[in-house]
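Section 3.1: Structural characterization of target chains.
Under the original work plan, the team committed to producing a structural model for every single-chain target entering the pipeline before any wet-lab resources were allocated. The record below documents one such target. The sequence was received from the expression subgroup and is listed exactly as submitted; it comprises 632 residues.
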Amino acid sequence: MDRFKGSSGDGGRGPDPSQRKVHFSIWYFIAALLLITWFQTYVSEQQSNRITYSEFKQAVKDGRVENVAIGPERINGAYKDAKDPNKYFSTVRVEDPELVRDLEARGVNYSGVTENKWVAVMLSWLLPLGVFFLFWTFLMRRMGGGPQGVLSVGKAKVKIYAEKEVGVTFKDVAGIDEAKAELEEIVQFLKDPGKYQKLGGKIPKGVLLLGAPGTGKTLLARAVAGEAGVPFFSMSGSEFVEMFVGVGAARVRDLFGQAKDHAPCIIFVDELDALGKARGLNPIGGHDEREQTLNQLLVEMDGFDPRAGVIIMAATNRPEILDPALLRPGRFDRHVAIDKPDIRGREEILRVHAREVKLGPDVDLKKIAAMTPGFVGADLANLINEAALIAARRDRPEVTMSDFQEAADRIIGGLEKKNRAMNPKEKEIVAYHESGHALVAMMLPNVDPVSKISIIPRGIAALGYTQQLPTEDRYLMTRKELLDRCHVLLGGRVSEEIIFGDISTGAQNDLQRTTDIARRMIMEYGMSEKLGPLTYVNEPRSAHLDLGFAPKEREFSERTAQLIDEEVAGIIDGVHQKVRRMLTEERGMLEKLAKILLEKESIDGEELKHFTDEVSARMALKGTVAVSGASR
């Protein structure tokens, strides 16, 4: 069985093509060295045919040499034959006292050449040194300037958006009306600070946005800047801390210095928990650099003049691990919670993201909002995009309701894999497994109704799934509802036991989730008669992240631990026995549903509703018979 899970995604602005930078490459330096070497070897010397000294002497004796130039180390000359392609020659000079006499005897014009030593020195030493000097100058500028420079590690790597570059207002934010109302006051202060100052009031220095990933915290912060028309400084908490000690504190000072120069403005620190984790929370020892950076942030916020018009906003999904000094009045003293949207909020978010999408006449955004419980803004944006891609893939002129249904199935269960080969035995096991989930859900009153059953493999390991959609948004769960959820989870495994007399590995995730619910009932919710209304989990748990059940340290006795294990085992054993009894009594309906699944591979819509009504009628009849028997 699959539940809904959300994810977040953020977009960014690409670089301006008109402001492209030329990046230095080490290959440029290597090419310059090769060019210098070639110039010294080939260009500085006269290009000629190199011969041996004996060949030169023989050519002089034969009368083929026209003229020569005698240097300290080499002799360069030319032959008399003008048609010879190798007219010019060069040879190494040898101490030969008879050379001048032989040249005069054959009528060869000769002269002496004095080499220019300073030219050779310049080419051999000064030119390479000049190239090295230029390279070093460029490297030092590269290291010292810009946000990526090694010597500029103290500069804040902040992204600055001008007033017109933000491009987001409150019209682009939907589904979180309460949070927008909270931030309206910030916008009014940035537009007209005198309105509050003349009455002696002070605007909050810091605003902390709390919410699950993808709920729109960053979008809301940018909308505040866009609505107020002020510059927006954006930086992640992890970008403050580097390997060099003192860099984070320097970046905090630089960030606040830039903000003062651009006031009024907004500073936005995303993922504040990466920077503001509570000091001393790590039992092994704190990170000195991170704590030093946090201390500098606290000092800067204290030293800020509230009349400067600089608002500090931050976002996190782990508020429980933040340092208390950050949350006291005078720092991040206003907390704005951004919860997952309800059905009306999801409908509004869908309308915002569907502005540029051509929707078909059968598309009902209210129905789409109803079938996406638990989805956050990023999930709904992804749903709209996936539906548009599916419609384009099928060459449709507009996006239809079936495209949205398929997109939702793909996001929830993963990519459909119709070509995955399953042998008939495995397919039959999966059909009875999913039928067991669905039938138990149809028979119990405190669970979400079944909307779709499929044995088509999806995702990485899901061989089938049973989809349940709640009829309304829920914020509390009773003990009976938690137990009924465990009944539905164990329905697949019990169905395999009854039909095949054996069990498979397909129920691994169901068992894990059932055990997690049962253990939370005992250890967190105090739903045990033996242990009473006590909780045994002291670790700070996130209200915005589902981190699973993983207590790090036990603070109770071995006897209590044994009682907890017995209570958890007792809950699961009772659930198992009840589900086995229910499916044994309704084995005929179980086999009927499994046969339909094996034939059609997927059941939803009217066919599923007809089967659900039949099961409900049988349950109602059983209830009537039971009441009549009791009255007699």
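The chain has a mean pLDDT of 78.
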